[in-house]
Amino acid sequence: MARIPDNRKIYTFPLNKQKFTLFLDSYWGLILRTETSINAEILHSQIWHTDENKHLGLTATGWHLTRWGNEAVEELNGLTDNERLLLSTEFGLPICTHYLELPYRNNDSFLTSPSANKLRDWIKMHPIISKRLSSRSEKILYIFKILGVPAI
């Protein structure tokens, strides 16, 4: 039997010559990547503006895609306000301008996003792969639970 990969691409959202790709990953859970970024766990990530250059991983001040509060994943200074809003809406990423606004978890905003619907559709279209991925990962089982998708 062929080995099932540990992650699956759900879809790609192009924005300003950059591609933001959503993956279902047996180790990380639900992640967002660009061609140059590291994994940003959707349920623990946000778009954050900072005037300080002292936070973990920040290479400059301004807008960043961050995970776990202040860990920079991708600089977003090249995006316009409307493009950042599109990115926020598409993936359910809160936009924060103060450290105290950073959520620990953003389940609610993710669940109302278009990407949550695309993930539900993908799971329904790929039940065997979904079952195999969920059998390897508590994070994926949790994602299925919050989406209201049976654990197949």
Which labels suit this protein?
four-stranded antiparallel β-sheet; four-stranded mixed β-sheet; alpha+beta; 152 residues; globular
Average per-residue pLDDT, rounded, comes to: 84
Number of strands: 8
**Helical content (DSSP H or I, runs of 4+):** 25-40%
Query: Order of strands side by side in the largest beta sheet?
Result: 1-2-3-4
Low-confidence stretches: none
Shape descriptor reads globular
The major β-sheet equals: 4 strands, antiparallel
The value of Rg in angstroms is 16 Å
Helix count from the secondary structure assignment: 5
Beta-strand level of the residues, as a percent range?
Answer: 25-35%
Distance between the termini: 20 Å
Give the topology string: H per helix, E per strand.
Answer: EEEEEEEHEHHHH
- Structural class by SSE content: alpha+beta
What is this structure's SSE topology?
Elements: E1 7-15, E2 18-25, E3 29-33, E4 40-41, E5 45-50, E6 62-67, E7 71-75, H1 81-91, E8 95-96, H2 107-111, H3 114-125, H4 127-136, H5 138-147
Parallel strand pairs: 5-8
Antiparallel strand pairs: 1-2, 2-3, 3-4, 5-6, 6-7
Helix pairs in contact: 4-5
If you had to describe this structure to a student in words, what would you say it looks like?
With 152 residues, the chain is of the alpha+beta class. The model has no long low-confidence stretch (mean pLDDT 84). It contains five helices and eight strands. The radius of gyration is 16 Å and the shape is globular. The protein has helices at 81-91, 107-111, 114-125, 127-136, 138-147, and strands spanning 7-15, 18-25, 29-33, 40-41, 45-50, 62-67, 71-75, 95-96. A hairpin with a 3-residue loop joins β6 (62-67) and β7. 31% of the residues are buried.
